[in-house]
Amino acid sequence: MSQTVVITGLADGMGLEVVRMLAKAGDQIAGFDVDAGGIESLKKELDGMGAKHYLEAIDITDRPGILKFRDKVLEKFGTPDIVVSNVGIGFFGPFEEIDLEKALKCFEINVIGAAAIFQAFIPSLRKAGKGKLIAMSSLVGQIPFPFESIYTATKFAIQGLVESIQYEVAPFGIKVAIVEPAQVSTSFAAKIHKLPPEGSPYRERARRFIDRDNELIKTATTPVQAAEKIIKVINDADPKLHNQVDFNSTFFLVLNRFLPKAMKDFILINYMNIKP
Questions:
Q1: Residue 40 phi, psi (nearest 5)
Q2: pLDDT for 147 beyond 70
Q3: Which DSSP string corresponds to the chain?
Q4: Helix 149-169 vs helix 100-107: crossing angle, to nearest 10
Q5: Residues spanned by the domain of 248
Q6: Inside any domain, residue 255
Q7: Per-residue confidence (pLDDT) for residue 187, from 0 to 100
């Protein structure tokens, strides 16, 4: 039986691969992305597959636009079965040197963006007495990484947001789930990696962090592999709250749960090659 899935951030990467898999399974897709060119390309691809869809180019910070999108989705498909928040941007740099206005934008997109799409559709899910809310988080939503303080903070916020929401919506038959990849071999990291300026006391360690991150990305989970795991969460009638898509995230989360802090810190610092 086909289902209707609402998903944000679907023009490339994991989101795009998830949509392709949903379309192949005969599901109806509604979504948006700020990338207008990517949306037009995806429309043509889905039309070629004979998939039912409703796609728009919308900025996640456009909250009135999100509500208009919701109304059109409800009119076209009725209440969706699943709402997936996949939109997000990265943020890299030593905390001492970051621009807090840019950091605020990261919170607006990563956290309030997820809140906006969930809040828009919860009323219809509640009335239907069923549905799923799925948020894309990250390994750093539970394990803080240096030079990613703002990004880490947004992912910790996503974890707290969804874990809190679950208690409110559970009586109405709404399930929630969080997906927590470590690294996925996309251009996501490359877009944010920027060395601190010459003279920065953090420059050398940040350089080693970037080099190590780029090395890890070469063998990281592919967008297709990540999407396959996300599809399993989407299709699971009773998904787990926390879901990993790769061995590394599962492994490090187990270590994070049981090892003493000093040992966890030692592993992280050496793993990312940032020992002073």
A1: -65, -40
A2: yes
A3: ---EEEEES-SSHHHHHHHHHHHHTT-EEEEEES-HHHHHHHHHHHHHHT--EEEEE--TT-HHHHHHHHHHHHHHH-S-SEEEE-------S-GGG--HHHHHHHHIIIIIHHHHHHHHHHHHHHHHT-EEEEEE--GGGTS--TT-HHHHHHHHHHHHHHHHHHHHHGGGTEEEEEE--S-BSSSHHHHH--PPPTT-TTHHHHHHHHHHHHHHHTTSBPHHHHHHHHHHHHH-SS--SEE-SSHHHHHHHHHHHHS-HHHHHHHHHHHTT---
A4: 30
A5: 4-271
A6: yes
A7: 60
Domains of the chain: total: 1
- Whether residue 265 is predicted with pLDDT greater than 90 in this model: the reply is yes
Position 158: which residue type?
Answer: I
- Residue 194: inside a domain: yes
The β-bridge partners of 31 are 7, 55
Residue pLDDT, tens place only, 65-121? 999 999 999 999 999 999 999 989 999 999 999 999 999 999 999 999 999 999 999
Q: What CATH code is carried by the domain that includes residue 124?
A: 3.40.50.720
Q: What is the pLDDT of residues 20-60, one digit of tens each?
A: 999 999 999 999 999 999 999 999 999 999 999 999 999 99
* 152-211 pLDDT tens trace: 999 999 999 999 999 999 999 999 999 998 777 666 655 678 899 999 999 999 999 999
| Residue 124 belongs to some domain of the structure | yes
In a domain, 276, yes or no: no
Helix axes 149-169, 113-128, angle to 10 degrees: 10
